[in-house]
Amino acid sequence: MKTIDKTKTTVLAIGTLAVIGSLTGAITNLNLMDYFFPLYAGLTLMGVALLHKEEKTENGKACKA
User: Fold this and answer.
1) How far apart are CA 22 and CA 11, in angstroms?
2) Residue 5 in this model has a pLDDT that exceeds 90
3) Who has greater pLDDT, 1 or 26?
């Protein structure tokens, strides 16, 4: 696995905390509807952090957008 920069690590950590918090709340209250948005947001953040690929230029370095 390639090295993960600080921004991706932060986004992944926030997403993981959101998923854990929403699942914990949904299990304790036995109601997923109240915790659906934080779960959705957390899974989206985790997906973006894990699946995002940087664009490369011809010389192999990442381009600045």
Assistant:
1) 16
2) no
3) 26
Q: What is the pTM of this model?
A: 0.74
Place of tokens 């934080």: 38
Say how far apart CA 44 and CA 22 lie, in whole Å: 13
Instruction: Label residues 51-63 b or e (16+ Cβ within 10 Å = b).
Output: eeeeeeeeeeeee
Helix spans in 1-65 (H):
6-29, 36-51
Contacts of the segment 5-11: beta carbons below 8 A, 24+ positions apart: 8/49, 8/52, 9/49, 11/45, 11/48, 11/49
**Six-digit token pair at 57?**
């230029």
Query: pLDDT, tens digit, for every residue of 21-48?
Result: 999 999 999 998 999 999 999 999 999 9
